[in-house]
Amino acid sequence: MSHTAHIRSHRKPRRSASTIAMRAGVAGGVLSTLAVAGASGANAAEPVTQTIELPALTADLAAQVAQSADATQQTAANYELQAERDAAAANAAKQAKADLAEAKLKAQAKKKAAETARKAAAERASRNADRTTLGVSANVSTGSSSSSSSTATGSAAAVIAFVKAQIGDAYVSGGTGPNSWDCSGMVQAAFKQVGINLPRVSQDQSVAGTQVSLSNLQPGDILYWGSAGNAYHVAVYVGDGMFVGAQNSSTGVVEKPLSYDPPTGAVRVL
Q1: Cα distance between residue 156 and residue 138, in whole Å
Q2: Which residues pair with 246 in a beta bridge?
């Protein structure tokens, strides 16, 4: 027996070919994986950047921008102008409607006034014959108109004396004396002399007493022109078919016959 028979060999045991091949494959796979990972890491470290070129603001482009802004501003101005025109047209239409309504009211008022004047004129004409008859009857029944119609006593005489004393004074609208009068101002002052307080204006004085017929007048009666409650003139009957009144600015206070301006009616307050 050899003296080295029990000594283990210092040589490494040989690896089989299959083992070597397997290890080589594993190593190759590992290297491949590392290579792929390395490539991926390289790509991730360097991102791709895309550059976009903006157009340069040239003089032409600036002009186009300015022109567009001007056009927008002009459009806005046009809209504002149109809105103002529409508002003005609406206001004009509203004013025209109001003016038309006012004109209609004025026309109706004028028509009513004309109708009132026409009726008053017709009433005057219809009473003219009565006044003429009144004068004739007085003369026939008395033989002298002055013997009956001019006889006034007491308060009536005082009223007549007052109005006759004002003959020749001026007529002034709104006048209440002592040297200028309007028709109702003088009548009011005359009756105030005898303690009777009449209303100030003709309309009210025409209904201040008892309505009397023009064929039955007495000195001191108040004559009115127009209609009762809507008279436009008054005077005092002084007898003998005469009246005294503040007629107008041309004549002033005068004494006239009834035929000069035939009255519409009369009231008696004495």
Answers
A1: 19
A2: 253
Q: Say what the pTM is.
A: 0.47
Contact 242, 182 (CB under 8 A): no
Where residue 262 sits, what CATH number does that domain have?
3.90.1720.10
HEC string for 47-59: CCCCCCCCCCCCH
**163: in domain:** yes
Lowest average pLDDT, out of 18-27, 79-88, 166-175, 199-208, goes to 18-27
| Boundaries of domain holding 136 | 118-268
Residue 251 resides in a domain: yes
Cα torsion angle, 200, 203, 207, 213, sign: positive
Enter the tokens of residue 74. 């002009």
pLDDT in tens, 89-131: 888 888 888 888 887 877 777 676 656 656 655 565 555 545 4
Q: What amino acid is encoded at 210 in this protein? A: T
Tokens 């080295």 correspond to what residue?
Answer: 4
In a domain, 87, yes or no: no
